[in-house]
TrEMBL record:
Residues 35-101 form the RNA polymerase sigma-70 region domain. It comes from Myroides albus. One of its GO terms (molecular function) is DNA binding. One of its GO terms (biological process) is DNA-templated transcription initiation. Residues 131-178 form the RNA polymerase sigma factor 70 region 4 type domain. Pfam families: Sigma70_r2, Sigma70_r4_2. Belongs to the sigma-70 factor family. ECF subfamily. It comes from the Bacteria. This is Sigma-70 family RNA polymerase sigma factor.
Length: 202
């Protein structure tokens, strides 16, 4: 009876992720529901940035399902928010690899990106992604337009040239200029951050 009262009291006074995870480890479904309610929407937004379509929600749901299945192995002292975001990223990488035959360079790039995600907190990742988005917004107008058509829309250089009625060399020059500006401002992690923003390795 005391145990039931304790659980009831704790469930109505949970204030930290640590407390939530402690209850989830005990297979408390209400605590798990509270965790989902707390992070589901923001994780879907993050997943959408990566995958860019309606599969984002499925990806997040898969992450929560795996968290519940492996709940007994959760460490209440670990940062569950970081775990959730990194799990979403890892789920995205798995989906990316299943849906596309990777070239060796792409596979190596994903390994580097995964290592970057694993060694940075979610707060640092969000700051870095926001910085990348701001720097893209600050690109010269025409270069930004070409760059976004290439990275976000996935158009080939020739398709961009036809769409904007400019030469292929002009498209290549704008993309090269954009890369040069971004690398100068963001350094060696530019390609990793571009992947986190656009979900593309090239």
């Amino acid at each position: 009876m005391f145990e039931c009262f304790f659980i009831f009291f704790l469930m109505n006074n949970l204030t930290t992720d640590t407390e939530l995870v402690e209850m989830i480890v005990l297979s408390n479904e209400k605590a798990f529901t509270l965790l989902i309610e707390k992070y589901y929407q923001s994780l879907c937004v993050y997943a959408y940035k990566l995958i860019g379509n309606e599969e984002a929600q499925d990806l997040v749901q898969n992450v929560f399902m795996k968290i519940w299945i492996k709940r007994l192995k959760l460490n209440p002292e670990a940062n569950i928010k970081n775990l959730l975001y990194k799990s979403v990223f890892n789920e995205f990488v798995d989906t990316y690899r299943k849906n596309k035959k990777l070239e060796p360079l792409e596979y190596q790039c994903l390994k580097v990106i995964n290592a970057y995600v694993e060694t940075n907190s979610q707060e640092d990742l969000e700051l870095a992604i926001n910085l990348m988005q701001r720097e893209i917004d600050n690109l010269p107008n025409k270069s930004k337009e070409v760059f976004i058509l290439s990275k976000r829309q996935g158009l080939t250089n020739q398709e961009i040239a036809d769409y904007l009625n400019i030469s292929l060399k002009t498209v290549e020059a704008h993309i090269s200029k954009s890369y040069s500006i971004l690398k100068k401002r963001l350094g060696e992690n530019t390609n990793i951050l571009l992947f986190l923003v656009f979900g593309r390795v090239n």
